[in-house]
Amino acid sequence: MPSLSFSHVRIPTIFGPQSPIWYILNLTKLFFGLHLVNEYVGQIKQTAGPSMLPTLNVAGDWVYVSRFYRRGRAVKVGDVVTIRHPMFPGTGASKRVLGMSGDFVLRDTPGGEGGMMVQIPEGHCWLAGDNLPDSRDSRDYGPLPLALIKGKVIARILPFKERKWIENGLEDVHS
């Protein structure tokens, strides 16, 4: 009995490497992969504004933000974080953490009028810009819910000549 051979017959497949569906599926996988990295690993963001001078320039700085610190996870006093701005929905900001839940902080600008101390409630933190006169921060909107923290600024990567790790800029005061 003769054997049947179909090696010369080409059967088209809709999921093969040359089909439009194959390209669409791979682009979809790439999109979701990039989305997962952006949401849960890290992202590169441009900064703007004078509130974090001299740590970050007014314009032109690009920073790496680690998303492992989302919602205040493992954030410490002295870290620079990115937040969803509570006064301007839809915008973000970068600020330094000055106090965590249970800490007492000075509500007003040091050396200014007042001098009232407040205790930061559970699930909140106290933020301030490094450039206090030009910063809209917890002195204006109060303690920030940790849920509004989007990540921790790890490094300035551009401009290339000014790249550096963003260190904890606070020093212990011994009285």
Summarize it.
The chain is of the alpha+beta class. Helix content is 14%, strand content 31%.
Describe the structure.
By secondary structure, this protein is α+β, with helices and mostly antiparallel strands. The chain contains two helices and ten strands. Strands 1, 2, 3, 4, 7, 8, 9 and 10 form an eight-stranded antiparallel beta sheet that branches. A two-stranded antiparallel sheet has the order 5-6. The longest helix is centred in the first third of the chain and has 21 residues, at 20-40. The protein is elongated. It starts with 19 loop residues before the first helix and ends in a 10-residue tail after the last strand.
List keywords for this structure.
175 residues; alpha+beta; 8-stranded antiparallel sheet; two-stranded antiparallel sheet; 2 helices; 10 strands; 14% helix; elongated
The amount of helix comes to 10-25%
Any idea what the radius of gyration is?
25 Å
Low-confidence segments, given as residue ranges, are: none
Gap between N and C termini: 101 Å
Give the helices and strands, then pairings.
Blueprint: H1 20-40, E1 42-48, E2 59-66, E3 80-84, E4 92-100, E5 104-106, E6 117-119, E7 124-128, H2 138-141, E8 144-145, E9 149-158, E10 164-165
Antiparallel strand pairs: 1-2, 2-9, 3-4, 3-9, 4-7, 5-6, 7-8, 9-10
